[in-house]
Design goal:
Elements: H1 2-9, E1 15-19, H2 24-34, E2 43-47, H3 54-65, E3 72-75, E4 78-81, H4 83-92, H5 95-102
Parallel strand pairs: 1-2
Antiparallel strand pairs: 1-3, 3-4
Helix pairs in contact: 1-3, 2-4
Bound molecules: glutathione.
Glutathione (GSH) binds next to helix 2 and helix 4.
Pfam families: Glutaredoxin
Function: Has a glutathione-disulfide oxidoreductase activity in the presence of NADPH and glutathione reductase. Reduces low molecular weight disulfides and proteins.
Keywords: Disulfide bond, Electron transport, Redox-active center, Transport
């Protein structure tokens, strides 16, 4: 179920953030991406906080991305990591071109 849920959310030209409401890194990741004004419908924030299967989802995220912390951020089907990694992409100047490559910007 967790696997199905996560995979159903990912799409080639979409940015997806799996987060939790009490997580400051999640809010910073969402703010950073919202500031870039991605194409409508190409950014989705998924709040895992109130889901009964949150642990299963995080276990599955660990399995496919190497970490179960939130945020877990996907560009298409590729996980770019968490907020620190997103911020590093911004600072290095790679972020916008990666978003353009997947068709989200
Ligand atoms: N360096 C990571 C830090 C992420 C992190 O520490 N997230 C916390 C929440 S703010 C977390 O996942 N804690 C465990 C949990 O909520 O299951 C990032 O930038 O994404």
């Amino acid at each position: 179920m967790a696997q199905q849920f996560v995979n159903s959310k990912l799409a080639p030209n979409k940015v997806v953030i799996f987060g939790k409401s009490g997580c400051p890194f999640c809010h910073r990741a969402l703010d950073l991406l919202e500031e870039l004004h991605l194409k409508p419908g190409h950014l989705e924030y998924i709040d895992l906080s109130n889901r009964s299967d949150v642990a299963d989802i995080q276990d599955y995220l660990l399995q496919i991305t190497g970490a179960r912390t939130v945020p877990r951020i996907f560009f298409g089907h590729t996980c770019i990591g968490g907020f620190t990694d997103l911020d590093a992409l911004k600072r290095s100047g790679e972020l916008e071109s990666l978003l353009k490559q997947i068709g989200a910007l």
